Amino acid sequence: MRNLILTLLCAFMLFAGCGSKEVVVIYSPHGADMLGDYEKLFEAAYPEVDMQWLDLGSSEVLGRVRAEQGRPMGDVWWGAPSTMFTQAAQEGLLDSYTPTWADAVEVAYHDSGDAWYGTFISPLAIMYNTRGLSEAEIPKTWDELLNPEWKDKIALRMPLPSGTMRTFISAMISRAEDEAAGLVWLKQLHEATAEYPENPAMLYDHIKKNEDRISVWIQPDIVLQRDRNQFPFGYYIPPQTPVLTDGIAIIKGAPHSEWAKKFYEFVTTEEALVQQAAEYAKLPARSDVDRRKLPEWMQSVVIDAMPIDWTEFSAKQDEWCSRWDNEVYKATQ
Fold first, then answer.
1. Element at 243 (helix H, strand E)
2. What value does the mean pLDDT of the chain take?
3. Pair 134, 224 in one domain
4. Domain that holds residue 99
């Protein structure tokens, strides 16, 4: 990743650029591999630009965009669950932009005011170490995570900084009879959880080293670690699984707005989406991408999506996650 100090210094020179090159600054949770690769690809296509990026958790990006309101340093927010983009749009933190491929995205996968558009679809799955466990042995439903045999064998990525885990927590409350019942379920899961790794890299390392551990994570990232890094990971997608819509948006008042639009379009062409599917296991949200060009596992994936009112979900997510933090996690510290 580009040196953070350099990024911040360049951001103070918003309209003057950084050195002799144009600048575009990307905030993203997509990880160093994907961001580094697209830095090379974008700069090869546009030699006059210096693409800089910060690899942050989804919640950290939202916090940063909020903190920089009125004086933004970033241009494009690339990657996060739609609930976070919806929150940002409601707070006036995103610019309206209609991409050239807008007609190829279902209404459910973009903001009604064009503040953000979906790029990828990501179902939640149960992840396990294939060296120690088989698909036949692992839980097949969310409720089976609470079975006694899994006590102290669950590792969950620390939830609050993670858009993925915030979605999981909120979904488990949303599906329950009421909020109280949802929190009781989450307390039982917390009691069965042995560790909360701080970030995805630590979660992957932990599951890799502990053959009896299972976790909850998005299926595309599990496949990516399996295929790209040869980690011993398997997965099972339970019925009624939350499906995250991963999006992209231009930050309100982006200092390099024209380059922001170019980057937005560059990473969302059909060619780019097919490459992202092959290299990073990202399932495209666009309906016009030729499925025959996608990886075989992606063509055959079957998802039983949990029905979710995403508008209500987005409005309640902060409250639900705060209750989890105070009434579940901190209550046992």
1. strand 243-251
2. 92
3. yes
4. 4-121+244-299
